[in-house]
Amino acid sequence: MTAEPAATEAGRDFIRDIVQADLDSKKHSRIVTRFPPEPNGYLHIGHAKSIALNFGIAQEFSGQCNLRFDDTNPTREEQEYIDSIQADVKWLGYDWGANLFYASDYFDRLYEWAEGLIRAGGAYVDDQSQEEIRIRRGTLTEPGRNSPFRERPVEENLDLFRRMKAGEFPNGARVLRAKIDMSSGNINLRDPVLYRILHATHPRTGDKWSIYPSYDYAHGQSDAIEGVTHSLCTLEFEDHRPLYDWLLAKLPVPARPQQYEFARLNLSYTLLSKRVLTELVRGGHVAGWDDPRMPTIAGLKRRGVPPAAIREFVKRIGVAKANSVVDVGMLEFCIRELLNKSALRRMAVLRPLKVVIENYPEGRSEELEAVNHPDDPAAGSRKIAFGRELYIEQDDFMENPPKKFFRLSPGSEVRLRYAYFIKCREAIKNAAGEVVELRCTYDPATRGGNAPDGRKVKATMHWLSAAQSRPAEIRIYNPLFTKPAPDAANFAADLNPQSLEILGDARIEPAIAESNSPEPVQFERQGYFVRDSSSTADRPVFNRTIGLRDTFAKEVGKG
Ligand code: ATP
Ligand code: MG
Questions:
Q1: Separation of CA 411 and ligand 2 centre (Å)
Q2: ∠ at Cα 181 (179, 186), nearest 5°?
Q3: pLDDT at 265 over 50
Q4: 382 is annotated as an active-site residue
């Protein structure tokens, strides 16, 4: 599944064109955008698209981007999410400066405006149940029917609304609705709910409120209060725009923001619904929000994905007006491309097989020079230890090799990278018939990896000294889902049972065992790996960020 990203015109899209035109025509002198997450889960790669768009526009046009928490539903929102969202936006490389806001900052003003709307005959208290409201709302083909409470006198509405606020009624007993048009072709205009009763403790306002504004009521007004010029949201809100505009026109707001919609990011083999992600965590299908298999920002970070790779990915996919599914191979391409440039090369043996060099003196060892980055001489080199006992990768040996297998087999000769040519003499087996050790010889004349007589070998393999290498646990992550389009309604059926492989007996170079660097390294011939936060001094744990080549389809096939 190779996904070479199509070249997009750098940094131009229909929204940036609109912003540029609004500046050129002097409709606005300064651009204000916002990123408005609801703190009911961790951010995912889809949010990164919205973050990059909103913060990116503010940067490019010397404007401002606010981080605003859309905290209008206290039953689902938690401080943990507020904290993680701030950490993740910063980690992605964006900065809201002093412009951190909460919709709950505006609850008083929103309430006053709602009373004003009631006085102007634009809203009423409805005593119908949620179910009755739903039934009377009608369908796409059928108009809605007016509520029996729609013509309530203003004074009665005001009185009931105040008593809702005072906490006199139980949850669900009444709602405040805008009085628009029950026969509108747009269901969002069929007297939408503005306030509902909810006796719940809010992370910021505590027990002050027993009514909370709806998304539609809070969102546009918060935009207006903050002087947002361009309110960018995903396509599913296109049908909400007439309501957004209706409320701005009816209320004494200080500004008139304009909403624009763009396509949300969908990724193959991935589900980006917060409901599903929450269930993955709560149901124990993954180890937490930051499990490296999760498409969350926290998961990608723990997996070793550099923030610049996410920014590059989002830039390459661009911003369009039509929904589509992006091949996850494109994200992987961006990660590989960046890490290939930045990651230092190291050696690790994931599944070790012992090799004894019979003609290498016992008790001796020597140091060989290994380059840190083949394309970057400035990265320098390091010393690696060679000795009589080594480890190679189990996969690099076959007792009865097929014709095209050029790595180690009885009688064959290969190069150990940076070291010597070795030849296999004998494979030693255990009682079960498994090869547990190879007896080899080396050619001392090939030090550094070249034969003075000019003879060639067809394979170069990585290896480590048995005495000097260190033990490590290596975690290989495969796609979380086995299908390109997992079923969000029944996602458990599409989970990949082999999404995590733990290699508990791996060996790594001493230098990386001791390093606490958060930068991924390349384990030669294996891929990119990063130290996991659960590492201890004597047991480092490494996560595979990504393999060297696009083996994605094969990995899924195993699942
Ligand atoms: P859910 O996944 O439950 O629908 P949400 O993704 O809408 O929740 P919000 O916190 O409301 O969660 O999202 C904050 C912002 O991120 C919104 O402006 C939303 O449009 C945008 N956003 C969310 N998902 C995506 C996505 N997949 N692609 C692009 N933008 C997204
Ligand atoms: Mg939302």
A1: 64
A2: 120
A3: yes
A4: no
Which of 549, 459, 474 has its CA nearest to residue 504? 474
**CATH class of the domain at 14-262:** alpha beta
**Ligand 1 pocket residue status of 272, Cβ below 6 Å:** yes
Residues 6+ apart with CB under 8 A from 381: 369, 370, 371, 372
Question: pLDDT band at residue 551, thresholds of 50, 70 and 90?
Answer: low
When pLDDT is cut at 50, 70 and 90, the band that residue 385 belongs to is: very high
431 pLDDT tier (thresholds 50, 70, 90): very high
- Tokens for 484? 């390109």
Give the closest ligand to the alpha carbon of residue 237. Answer: 1
- 130 CA from centroid of ligand 2 (Å): 21
Q: Closest residue (by CA) to atom 13 of ligand 1?
A: 37
Question: 73: which residues sit within 8 A by CB, 6+ positions away?
Answer: 38, 40, 198, 212
pLDDT class of 514 with cuts at 50, 70, 90: confident
HSE-up of 369 (CA within 13 Å, CB side)? Answer: 6
5 lines ligand 1 (CB under 6 A): no
Query: Catalytic annotation on 354?
Result: no
Single-letter amino acid code for the residue at 112: E
Question: Cα(148)–Cα(128) distance, rounded to whole angstroms?
Answer: 8
Residue 37 Cβ inside 6 Å of ligand 1? The answer reads yes
Identify the CATH number of the domain defined by range 274-304+473-558.
Answer: 2.40.240.10
- In order, the DSSP letters of 271-337 are ---HHHHHHHHHTTSSSSTT-TTS-BHHHHHHHT--HHHHHHHHHHH---SS-EEE-HHHHHHHHHH
Per residue in 434-470, pLDDT tens? 999 999 999 999 999 999 999 999 999 999 999 999 9
Question: Letter for the amino acid at 107?
Answer: F
Say whether 177 is catalytic. no
Of 89, 230, 234, which is best to mutate to test ligand 1, by the most ligand atoms within 8 angstroms of its C-beta? Answer: 234
Q: How many angstroms does the Cα of residue 273 sit away from the middle of ligand 1?
A: 8
Question: Which superfamily is assigned to 346-468 in CATH?
Answer: Ribosomal Protein L25; Chain P (2.40.240.10)
Q: Do domains 274-304+473-558 and 346-468 have the same CATH topology?
A: yes
Does residue 129 contact residue 196 with C-beta atoms inside 8 Å? no
Mean pLDDT computed over every residue of the chain = 95
Which of 54, 238, 264 should be mutated for ligand 1, with most atoms under 8 A from CB?
A: 264
Please state the domain extents for the chain.
Answer: 14-262, 274-304+473-558, 346-468
Indicate whether 545 pLDDT > 60: yes
Mean pLDDT, residues 103-117 taken together: 98
Q: Which two tokens stand for residue 277?
A: 């992600």
Q: Please report which helix (H) or strand (E) contains residue 511, including its range.
A: helix 510-514
What does the pLDDT read at residue 71? Answer: 97
